[in-house]
Amino acid sequence: MTWTILVLVVGILLFLFGGMLLPKGDAKKPSATNVFAHKSIKLIAVILIAGSVCRLYVPYYLTAVNPIIVQEMVNGMQEQQQAEKNKHIRKMVRSEGDKMMADAPVLGNRDAKKTIYVWTDFSCPYCRRVHSELYRVLNERDDVRVVVKNFSIHGPLSDGPAKAVIAAKLQSPEKAAELTDMLMTREFYTQDDLKDSSTIAEKVEANVMKMAEEVGLDTEKLKEDMNGEVVARELRNVRDLAQEFEISGTPFLIIGEKAFPGAIPYSQINEALED
Is the model's pTM score more than 0.85? Predict the structure, then answer.
């Protein structure tokens, strides 16, 4: 701002007194060189004044007179960035779709033509909300499947459940889906469990095993598989794709070939499926 004002002052001074910088000649019949130099100084002065006035007025106009333009510019930039992101996602889903689904739990009709990928965390309340919206969609239509990418981001509250549902798929895809729904709709830890951080992982796993037993899984085999290569591979895939798609939190959905961050409602999910 200070430099802009200084340039404006210099421009005004040049416009008013710039002629004094030129050597004095015949006032009645000035030379062509003198006329050209005088006009050049005036032109430079006008450019400096106009540029300075623009730089001083434009921020005022955008913030005080018509701030909606700033919002429109930001929205336009975000839309452009989202379009580029969706283009990249479309490319990845088409080329890596089978790999993205291979080890992940799948809800709904596993042979459905329409796919929703959801990066989720069992201890995230927003993820639980979007899970109920997704199940509402699945209950109403059989042309959709939901691929659950367990983004374990809350430490011991996330790790055990995430590993359990991935490992459960090795025993039964149907039971893995059932366990996923159970963990999303029921509590698998209490406030008392949180009092001792050194034992929380142990308590969470014990509660998860009770649910796994309830859906008919072999819990001993489940514990073994939770520490196996398939689970480790799927969790790596989840993290790698999260980095690839710039996912910083949950829930995050890819519906068809477009990204939807946040807990979007049933109506928006259905609308995206029809695009």
Answer: no
